[in-house]
Amino acid sequence: MQARTLEHVRAFDYRPSRRSGRYQTQHISLLGVRGQMSVTGKQTQSSKRRGFTLVELVVVVLIVGIMAAVAAPRMFNTADNARDSSTRQSLTVVRDAIQMYFAQNEEYPPAATLATALEPYLNGPFPTCQTGNVSAAVRAAASEVALAPDGNDGWAYHEASGRFVVNHADGSDW
Question: Which of 63, 124, 163, 166 could in theory staple to 171 by disulfide, Cβ–Cβ 3.0 to 4.6 A?
Answer without folding.
Answer: 166
